[in-house]
Amino acid sequence: MTRKNVLVFRELPDDQMARLRAAHEVTVANPKRADQRKAFDAALPTAHGLIGASYSIDETVLARAPRLEAVSSISVGVDNYDLPALRQRGIVLTHTPGVLTETTADTLFALLIASSRRIVELANHVRDGQWTHNIDESLFGWDVHGKTVGILGFGRIGQAVARRAALGFGMPVLYHHRREVECPGLEGHVKAVSMEALLAESDFIVLALPLTEETRGLMNASRFAAMKRGAILINGSRGAVVDEEALLAALDHGHLRAAGLDVFAVEPLPQASPLRRHPRVTALPHIGSATHETRYAMAVLATDNLLQELAGERSECRVP
Ligand code: NAP
């Protein structure tokens, strides 16, 4: 088999690097690190394959990579990639669906419970030495079990959240989708509704959508106003699906009770962002899939995908 040039732009576990090196010439250069930027730029013109995550592979990058055949993303979301430019050049893009579904759903459900029961705030209350007498109702939270959850983005992760909510916590689940969805095992627990009904009836709204031109800014001031008073927003999709200014306004007016956010329009969240310290925001540093087991499984799948594509085989994880 012909050895090709692979550019690894986000670090991989040693054993996956060894698999790549056994088949190809490999350069490791993370363009987000100032000391590796030059090496990334230098490797692009000869690269046949790219593998990595969390970096924008746009038209400018692609223009500097004339030999590129395949890009393997170590993520399920593909909003960092210029899909039309890739298609036009006939460059294959693969991603890692499925292996991170349950872990990401765990993260979203943890955020949901933490936001409603004020877990982080109250753990800090203890840590800061403020637990000097029994708490009063000013520090009570709100129940999770039995409440209604509305899910926007009823795919793999959205449905995994629905299973936790419906089967674990007795929560009625609403979703709004462009087409009929079959949910084996959840019959009778989930209901397809209009966007208006989902916004008006849900105690929790969980976002598990991809970022696309259609979903960018989907949660805006008018949609927050249409949510039930006292509802809680959980965002585990991409930050830009939410208008953050409008979210802050909805929290400050008291219309929304709280927000649990794993993703932000700009990451890492800027020091000056009011979302960092807002008393009713639980903010996480984009940890949806960040467990040892799942990040390893993603690296293995992404490596499989690239090796297959560079060998002229068709990976099952091609982005259409
Ligand atoms: P998925 O199975 O493709 O699910 C996405 C769902 O969203 C699909 O059912 C899709 O419907 C639906 N959708 C797309 N556009 C929509 C719209 N405008 N209105 C309503 N529904 C819409 O993907 P997944 O594996 O669940 O991942 C979903 C997203 O989660 C990823 O794209 C990524 O952005 C995010 N994510 C975040 C983390 C994290 O660390 N926080 C981790 C993993 C994933 P169709 O089937 O009709 O297209």
Automatic annotation (TrEMBL):
> What sequence ranges are listed for the domain D-isomer specific 2-hydroxyacid dehydrogenase NAD-binding?
109-288
Q: Name one GO molecular function term.
A: NAD binding
The reactions it catalyses are: (R)-glycerate + NADP(+) = 3-hydroxypyruvate + NADPH + H(+); (R)-glycerate + NAD(+) = 3-hydroxypyruvate + NADH + H(+); glycolate + NADP(+) = glyoxylate + NADPH + H(+)
Catalytic activity, EC: 1.1.1.79, 1.1.1.81
Does the keyword Ubl conjugation feature in the UniProt annotation?
no
CDD domains, sorted: GDH
Q: Which GO terms describe its cellular component?
A: cytosol
Where do the D-isomer specific 2-hydroxyacid dehydrogenase catalytic domain residues begin and end? 6-318
EC top class, as a word: oxidoreductase
Alphabetically list the UniProt keywords: Oxidoreductase, Pyruvate
Entry similarity comment: Belongs to the D-isomer specific 2-hydroxyacid dehydrogenase family. GhrB subfamily.
Write the protein's name.
Answer: Glyoxylate/hydroxypyruvate reductase B
Organism of origin: Hydrogenophaga crassostreae
The major lineage groups are: Bacteria, Pseudomonadati, Pseudomonadota, Betaproteobacteria, Burkholderiales
